[in-house]
Predict the structure.
Amino acid sequence: MRGKSILLIVGGGIAAYKSLELVRRLAERGINSRAILTKAGAEFVTPLSLSALTGEKIYHDLFSLTDEAEMGHIQLSRSADLVVVAPATADLMAKMAGGLANDLASTALLATDKPVLMAPAMNVRMWQSPSVTRNRAILENDGVLFVGPNDGEMACGEFGPGRMAEPLEIVAAIERALAIEGPLAGVKALVTAGPTREPVDPVRFLANHSSGKQGYAIAEALARAGAQTTLISGPVSLAPPQGVKLQRVTTAREMLAACEAALPADVLVMAAAVADWRPDIAANSKIKKSTDRVVPLIKLVENPDILASLAQHAQRPRLVIGFAAETDDVVENAIAKRRRKGADWIIANDVSGDVMGGDKNRIHLISEAGSEDWPEMTKTDVGARLAARIAEKLKGAA
Ligand code: CTP
């Protein structure tokens, strides 16, 4: 981690004192901090204490001639490897979600070309309010990383989620986001997960039972192994995996577009259960039940095959991995699927039991060399083992 640096934005909250501790813990690991202290943040910690710990001047004014002479605000926003907002207040989240730029902190967040990690801290009711929930979803969709908040007693006496993550938890999240350690350091991974939903009309859709658990576990394992990981997810009810850039999509066509936009990548893991077909036309208004009981006929058309398209793409990832959800002749079907789709590996699993939605999986890794049968294990363990196999392969050992 030595030689890495963060831009720390300290917002106004009682948790700001923990940011001083965070700077110390980072310094112990050789990670330098430069800090922007918001006006509200300065009510809780002093520029002097922050400056003493960072060993740098503290920035707080967008229109300060001396600040700008030393380092322009655009340059400041890009001067570090990662921007960390701790504490991230409801106000800072709202500003970033809305694209406001009316002070130095919000301008830096808008202008940066680096990943952003937020450690929210606020009252439990504020955290659970519809607007903060909405802003968080927008930010997650834009690829902002989050650590915490944790459950616990708050300074205001209430109990629940809203406490800022502890400094060492934020350090761990920073190390994951900087992702310079681990067997997959320097590798860019693209993972898809969950089902796709194909609209029939504004209230109905075609989908499948995919829970997204396996894809999420793989994305998290790749990130933990040091890969810079993007997860493109269909609608699921899972918490975003730690250290992963998450993008939510709905339909197969949206998933294909999001995957193409995320290229180049070194490795692709297509764990999503993409709907093979979609209704030819998605009605603009709800299809009504007719009085003479005529059942509507829904004509289906084929969706693009994302795995096959990316396997032939001009920016084809070095390692293309597909899944094969099968109910019969699992290995034979998967071997044929590997060839048909142009994938390097296929992870075949038997979905005739309760794999979909469950926590365990029994898979066969199909490669050029044949079939490798893995014992039944948790989806988390499948993720870790697959990440290790990917690392071996990309480093040329497999
Ligand atoms: N896949 C895809 N795009 C599709 C359908 C599937 O990218 N339109 C990907 C899946 O993400 C998975 C692999 O292809 O990695 C195999 O998916 P599966 O549903 O098992 O295969 P199908 O192509 O649907 O073949 P079949 O229905 O004949 O088993």
About this structure: The CA atoms of residues 148 and 165 lie 5 Å apart.
